């Protein structure tokens, strides 16, 4: 499911009125999961802007292999290139501090802390059901932690993305499957936020959409419907929707993009294309137009080794609701941590039990 949420906090308005620049499109036709509770449909325009898309030790006795884990900061005792501590706090865009989250009786996150700095390409990995998507949604402001804090550019987020009024950072979230609006064209999907929330004229938005689609390697698809696209193309359209921004604004805030399993369901070559695309829209990359990307930092949740190797520089390993290992990608394959070794090899033998 794709979701572009913009946090400054632009996002897509889902109030129950007709779209300003998308004739005939009515927000009530949005999928039900995108609906905004009536009680939240008041307040300022900013408040009405909404999202569309929608460590303690592990509980099991894992034996000696976990004895090297520091339960306070969750860093394995291997000699790894981990977080740079107190250095240059100014470049921290998102920080999770001791985040806890439960669903009913199920404790999913049990004290997760990490920082995402300007310029970083970070992967979150770990066994299924360990809370990777949950922490992504908490970073995005779609879910609130039960305990702990999320800081955006040094400021504590008070509620969800639409409540806190924090500006200074845009956050784009690209869900696993595209979740494009089936009844809208590619152009309308990609330009949705701008049609809704910007003062840009329609022809200018259309031009920007075409340019953004070209940046992700798509040409001549503006008028197609999502049903006419392949799975890989839908992922690219979803990416375009997450990175487009109002370039007429005087100041452009940096953007962090959060990708939830962006290569899931793709064949190896299509995965490589998406992995390179993720790199290319980053500020250290070069997009399909030969221009530097605009994305300041990104976080990728993935299970795929190719994505780990190709698309990220630093890894956080989440297991049983805690970060039990972190290091650079090149340190992952050679790690002596038994959890990491089992995960990397896919072995059934080891501390991770299914
Ligand atoms: N909204 C929700 N309500 C109830 N339980 C939830 C909700 N969201 C997630 N969970 C549960 O929380 C746990 C963690 O889910 P999450 O999707 O974050 O895991 P994950 O690590 O991303 O898994 P996977 O790798 O399989 O996608 C799962 O047991 C899931 O069922």
TrEMBL record:
It holds the Pfam family ABC_tran. It comes from the Eukaryota. Keywords: ATP-binding, Nucleotide-binding, Transport. SUPFAM superfamilies: P-loop containing nucleoside triphosphate hydrolases (SSF52540). GO terms for molecular function: ATP binding; ATP hydrolysis activity. The keyword Transmembrane does not apply. InterPro entries: AAA+_ATPase, ABC_transporter-like_ATP-bd, ABC_transporter-like_CS, P-loop_NTPase. Residues 94-345 form the ABC transporter domain. The keyword Ribonucleoprotein does not apply. This is ABC transporter domain-containing protein. It comes from Acorus gramineus.
């Amino acid at each position: 499911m794709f979701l572009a949420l913009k946090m400054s906090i632009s996002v897509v308005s889902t109030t129950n009125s007709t779209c300003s620049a998308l004739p005939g499109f009515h927000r009530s036709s949005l999928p039900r999961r995108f609906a905004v509770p009536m009680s939240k449909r008041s307040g300022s325009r900013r408040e009405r802007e909404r999202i569309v898309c929608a460590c303690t030790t592990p509980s099991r006795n894992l034996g000696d292999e976990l004895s090297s884990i520091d339960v306070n900061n969750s860093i394995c005792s291997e000699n790894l290139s981990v977080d740079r501590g107190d250095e240059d706090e100014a470049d921290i865009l998102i920080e999770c501090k001791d985040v806890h989250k439960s669903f009913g009786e199920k404790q999913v996150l049990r004290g997760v802390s990490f920082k995402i700095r300007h310029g970083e390409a970070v992967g979150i990995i770990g066994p299924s059901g360990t809370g990777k998507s949950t922490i992504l949604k908490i970073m995005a402001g779609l879910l609130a932690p039960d305990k702990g804090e999320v800081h955006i550019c040094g400021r504590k987020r008070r509620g969800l993305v639409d409540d806190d009024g924090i500006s200074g950072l845009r956050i784009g979230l690209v869900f696993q499957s595209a979740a494009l609006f089936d009844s809208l064209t590619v152009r309308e999907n990609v330009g949705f936020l701008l049609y809704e929330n910007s003062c840009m004229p329609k022809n200018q938005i259309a031009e920007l959409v075409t340019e953004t689609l070209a940046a992700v390697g798509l040409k001549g698809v503006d008028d197609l419907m999502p049903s006419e696209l392949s799975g890989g193309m839908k992922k690219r359209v979803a990416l375009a929707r997450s990175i487009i921004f109002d370039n007429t604004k005087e100041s452009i805030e940096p953007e962090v993009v959060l990708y939830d399993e962006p290569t899931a369901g793709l064949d190896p070559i299509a995965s490589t294309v998406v992995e390179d695309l993720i790199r290319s829209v980053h500020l250290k990359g070069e997009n399909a137009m030969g221009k530097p990307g605009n994305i300041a930092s990104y976080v990728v949740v993935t299970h795929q080794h190719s994505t780990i190797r190709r698309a990220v520089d630093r890894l956080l390993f989440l297991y049983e609701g805690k970060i039990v290992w972190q290091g650079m990608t090149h340190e992952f394959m050679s790690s002596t941590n038994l959890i990491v070794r089992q995960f990397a090899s896919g072995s059934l033998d080891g501390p991770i039990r299914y």
